[in-house]
Amino acid sequence: MPDSDGEEPDAAELAQWRTRYSQYQPGADRQAVWPAPTLDTAAQAGFRDLGLLPAVPFPADNPYSAAKVALGDKLFRDPRLSRNNRIACISCHAPEHGWSDPRSVSQGHIGQLGGRNAMTLLNTAYVGALFWDGRAASLEEQAKGPVANPLEMHQPLGQAVAKIAAAPEYASLFTAAYGDSRVDLDRMAKAIATFERTLISQDSAFDRFLKGERAALNDQALWGLHLFRTKARCINCHNSPLLSDNQFHNTGLNYIGRDKEDLGRGGVTGLRADLGKFRTPSLRDLLYTGDYMHTGDMPLDEDGAGVIEFYNNGGNLVEAVGVEKYTLPKPSLLLKPLGLSAAEKQALHAFLQALSGPPRLQPASEAELFRR
């Protein structure tokens, strides 16, 4: 069978997969007609299969309005949020790069370098805890962090508010969004968060396939879909319509006790069990958001190296040094050598490419947000 020996599936097997995978049940956590996914016990709880993104959720205390989106869009692009008036949110979250940064790490105040790759803002409306380490519980909270961060915009929050309040062009925008022209931090954060929630993926080939366009995935990408959910084991972490379980995992790339050490989630919770864990990123629109991992220095698949080969090898453990190598948490048990053949890796790559739609360069319309 192709799942075990790496041989390409024959026409009959591909036809069977196409028939079964075409019978998508919108909104179902489990797709009963699809071939069963290969899931470890640790991934079973709360598992949701792949699917179409639902309508964008907006919190009750920060509902959608087009006026708030317009205000948030302007604030997002305004370098006056930074101390030296040179860095805006868009400086590290560029639309043409999937609202992320193509550099491994971003440059902040006076050229200082951040410690992690800037995550994409695409589809963050569906994310629970924000940032690689989950330190922000909401987009409203996340919007405040970079302004005050000394490595990023390095500006006291009160000073940022005062600069925006003093800019005459904002009075009409705040009035349209909130009913009066008062400028405060919460209003600014809510507007930026509302704007960010409109940054959703456009339909990819995979989305079109789920909507009934049976030819949207070619045979190679269809094989890649099947591998993604079975032999390649990607589904254990990259599941749900977001293609992320919204959980934190230790892939061994924490460099504990070495250069580039990063405590990950453990630096937020203080729990030893969380050391070296990072949030599972979504795979939607990944063609625009590389390079990958929290270090931002790993290509997807390049000359036998990159993310696909990393996981094919079961991860590449960067051992800690000293006594800590005996006491620190080990990489997730979900990581296992896969034994993918060259043809299987190519098929998986083809499916991953099918997860990117046309680039989202402007906020989604109200119809796009709520009529999924």
TrEMBL record:
Keyword list, A-Z: Electron transport, Heme, Iron, Metal-binding, Oxidoreductase, Periplasm, Signal, Transport
UniProt pathway: One-carbon metabolism; methylamine degradation
Record flagged with keyword Signal: yes
UniProt-annotated location(s): Periplasm
Binding site for heme c 1: 89, 92-93, 109
GO cellular component, one term: periplasmic space
Descriptive protein name: Methylamine utilization protein MauG
GO MF terms held by the record: cytochrome-c peroxidase activity; electron transfer activity; heme binding; metal ion binding
